[in-house]
Amino acid sequence: MNKSTEQESKQEEQQANVASSKASNTKVVKKLLLIVFGMFGFGFALVPLYDVFCDITGLNGKTNDVAVTYTADGVDTSRTVTVQFITRTAKGIPWQFEPVINEIEVHPGEVKFVKFYAKNESTRDIVGQAVPSVSPGIAAEYFQKIECFCFTQQPLKASEDVEMGLQFYVDLELPPEVTTLTLSYTLYDITGSADSSS
Amino acid sequence: MTTDVLNDQDSHESEHHDDSHDHGKMTGIKRWLYTTNHKDIGTLYLWFSFIMLLIGGALAMVIRAELFQPGLQIVEPDFFNQLTTVHGLIMVFGAIMPGFVGFANWMLPMMIGAPDMALPRMNNWSFWILPFAFAILLSSFFMESGAPNFGWTFYAPLSTTYSNGSTAFFVFAVHIMGISSIMGAINIVVTIMNMRAPGMTYMKMPLFVWTFFITAYLLIAVMPVLAGVVTMLLTDTYFGTSFFDAAGGGDPVMFQHIFWFFGHPEVYIMILPAFGIVSTTIPAFSRKKLFGYSSMVYATASIALLSFIVWAHHMFTTGMPLFGELFFMYCTMLIAVPTGVKVFNWVATMLRGSLTFETPMLFSIAFVILFTIGGFSGLMLALTPVDFQYHDTYFVVAHFHYVLVTGSLFSMYAGAYYWMPKWTGHMYNKTLASWHFWCSLISVNLLCFPMHFLGLAGMPRRIPDYALQFADFNKWVSIGGFAFGLSQLIFLAVVIKCIKGGEKAPAKPWDGAEGLEWTVASPAPYHTFTTPPKID
Questions:
Q1: Is a pLDDT exceeding 50 seen at residue A3?
Q2: Reported ipTM
Q3: Nearest to A182 by CA among A136, A115, A131, A144
Q4: Peptide bond before B120: cis, by omega within 30 degrees of 0?
Q5: Side by side, which strands form the sheet with A161-170?
Q6: How close B18 gets to chain A, by Cα (Å)?
Q7: Which of B150, B161, B218, B455 could form a disulfide with B393 if both were Cys (CB 3.0 to 4.6 A apart)?
Q8: Contact B476/B450 with Cβ under 8 angstroms?
Q9: Which positions 243-282 of B are in contact with A (Cβ < 8 Å)?
Q10: Do B232 and A44 touch (CB under 8 A)?
Q11: Mean pLDDT of the region B329-357
Q12: Which residues on chain A are in Cβ contact (under 8 Å) with B229?
């Protein structure tokens, strides 16, 4: 075999390599782009996953955000749990916001009704939204709200005040080591993003 | 033209060089704007990274000038916050990451015997969108609202509800940086998978190639998450969504989870390539093969995998349950094992080697020692109970400056001095290089070591003023900071001198060096390995 044909065959081989490597480049790029878009989606999927994770583990002290119906099987009078109420207002909302009573003793399974007082101390109309959180976080899923002002937005005209109700019970299955629950409400000004219907 | 037939750039196999097909260089600005040549793009990346280092360094100098003594002297607290934020963003996304991509562009094709990167046109894109990203970010300094002032970690609600109006600029800049990094990473993966010379199996690749391979995968996995989280930030701030707003049912702590899910792999993105560089330089100047090559590969891979399950160690003080704290603490400490494997391998490589101490070796040894100090302070931070004391103090600042400055940056200096003869065709000025090393080494320790004590004593980070008892240490830190910043100008001088002239470098200036890049002439011809070399 002379030298020139040897070189030619070598060249052909290389051109074939180039063509096949281009095809496989596209294949790899496609796969990698799939990972990229998948991970971009995963970032957003973390948002619901985070809530699911907190729900299952009871972390984060999140309570139910829609009303539940009373399902407890009687009242366990042998146990008494102290439920404390605390409130705070987020930065920028000029409301007075406090519980009417600071704490209450309940038996698991017993339905209680308490009130919270709010007053718009400013000269403009404001829509507020209270966000609840229970501590210890592990007890959050046993704290059931039958009716709560936190389920809806709370519009108050300038200098208007209101008493807002909360009806709740504590599940019978509340872990025995929990003797005190703290329910904390943070009140936010959501006037800018409030539903126009409210 | 060298006698080496492999580099015959006029050979007719130039079809190899994709469809860009340029037979020579264009001249002037067009050469750089239109280039698809991996060496040109590598050079662009490296210069860009160095310019960003100087800009970020200048911001740091203002920070240190303000902290030179207690009280407010030079800048207002809000502007101080802008300085710390942009300093962090510039250094992470502008200096360290593009710097390593520059090394990858220059060296990867030569190390695996490929004529160029697999996707040269995309390579051009991924560089040229970067200057725009940083122009957007830096332009916010000149606007009424000012630059981002919420820390480089941009925690919500600081960056949403309490933003000074710079959030949109920040978000779009990060989007562009992210796209650039993703394109660069895809290019690296495709190049390594498809362009290796015949006979170069995965386990024959230089460790440098391995670390970039794994880093590129990390980038592909987490940069999209960063893009997602900044997008949520954008819609929260401007479009009324409530991802991180408790008033609308969101959760600000969730921001930290998503951010650090990106953020922790990100810190390994910034250090794994450094491991690759020193794993190249230390064997060269020890005149021995790298000790434990395959254990190095596996250690790199396991660090990368573990990096996905440790993110919450940045969040111990957010009120995590005890189980979570223990889980993230133990996982974090587990990373010390593969990292320890690496450090011991480097030491074992040097053991009984015939060592010489050229500048790249000096930077590499400094890397091993100082990075290990940074690793140990990281271990201290990993311990949940003590982290409650160290959290957000100067101890954290000391920790990540040890791993990023004396770690990542020093490794890049080691790599730059090591390959500069190959890049420019000249030896660097050894006296100036020694000055650069010793000035940097002394000043960086004066800069960063006292920060440990400040942090342990309780000085918080990101604060323009401090209690009087911290005054002495802060003065030292500031002096170290100015000295370190100025020392980097010596490097600029070295590089310019080296490009302009100097002692001619042979194809292989280091007698212990190994690798295909030393089989081509110095300076490396514009096109190399148009015919792939044979690897046995």
A1: yes
A2: 0.85
A3: A136
A4: no
A5: A95-99, A112-120, A161-170, A143-148
A6: 9
A7: B455
A8: yes
A9: 243, 246-249, 251, 253-254, 257-258, 261-262
A10: yes
A11: 96
A12: 43
* CA-wise closest residue to B149 among B79, B75, B92, B232: B79
Distance CA(A47)–CA(B14), nearest Å, equals: 50
| CB distance B98 to B49 below 8 Å | yes
Provide CB contacts within 8 A for A134, sequence distance 6+: A61, A62, A63, A140, A143, A181, A182, A183, A184
> Where is pLDDT greater, at B219 or A128?
B219
CB contact under 8 A, B261 and A33: no
Residue type, A167: Q
Cβ of B240 within 8 Å of Cβ of A193? The answer is: yes
Full-model pTM: 0.87
Whose tokens are 């984060």? That residue is: A60
B220 in A contact zone (CB under 8 Å): yes
pLDDT band of residue B488 (cuts 50, 70, 90) is very high
A136-145, B124-133, B184-193, B315-324: least confidently modelled range = A136-145
Record the tokens describing residue B56, joined without a space: 């970020």
Q: Cβ of B220 and A32 within 8 Å?
A: yes
Q: Tally C-beta pairs within 8 A across A and B.
A: 99
Q: How far is A14 from chain B (nearest CA, A)?
A: 8
Is B87 within 8 Å of B144 (Cβ atoms)?
no
pLDDT band at A6 (very low <50, low <70, confident <90, very high): low
Nearest-Cα distance to chain A for B250, in Å, is 9
Identify which of B194, B221, B246 has the shortest CB distance to residue A39. B221
pLDDT digits (tens, 9 = 90+) for A92-124: 889 999 999 999 999 999 999 999 999 999 898
- Tell me the nearest-neighbour CA distance from B54 into chain A, angstroms: 32
Contact A60 B251 (CB under 8 A): yes
* pLDDT tens track for B203-246: 999 999 999 999 999 999 999 999 999 999 999 999 988 899 87
Percent of chain B with pLDDT over 90: 87
pLDDT of residue B6: 43
- Please tell me the distance from the alpha carbon of residue B271 to that of residue B278, in angstroms, as a whole number: 11
Best of A24, A36, A59, A152 to substitute, by most chain B Cβ atoms within 10 angstroms, is: A36
User: Contact B178/B224 with Cβ under 8 angstroms?
Assistant: yes
pLDDT (0 to 100) of residue A10: 59
Catalytic residue numbers of B read: 87, 116, 152, 180-181, 264, 266, 268, 279, 313-314, 339, 342, 461
